[in-house]
Specification:
single chain, about 60 residues, mainly alpha, 2 helices, elongated
Length: about 60
């Protein structure tokens, strides 16, 4: 007598796998946001003032 091989996973186990993957993605995104905030990007020291009055007069 051969045992029947169940090829389809049960609904409960597939839901658990989906929830587990979703939680891993959420945790990964939270860690990524936290690490990006820790990086100090250089900010420009001089403000650029562009005079556009000549260009407006030409239009």
């Amino acid at each position: 007598m051969q045992l029947k091989y169940n090829r389809q996973p049960s609904l409960g186990s597939s839901l658990i796998k989906i929830l587990f993957k979703f939680l891993l993605i959420i945790i990964f995104l939270i860690i990524a946001i936290f690490l990006v905030e820790k990086i100090s990007f250089p900010s420009p020291e001089k403000k650029f003032e562009i005079d556009v009055t000549n260009e407006i007069k030409k239009l």
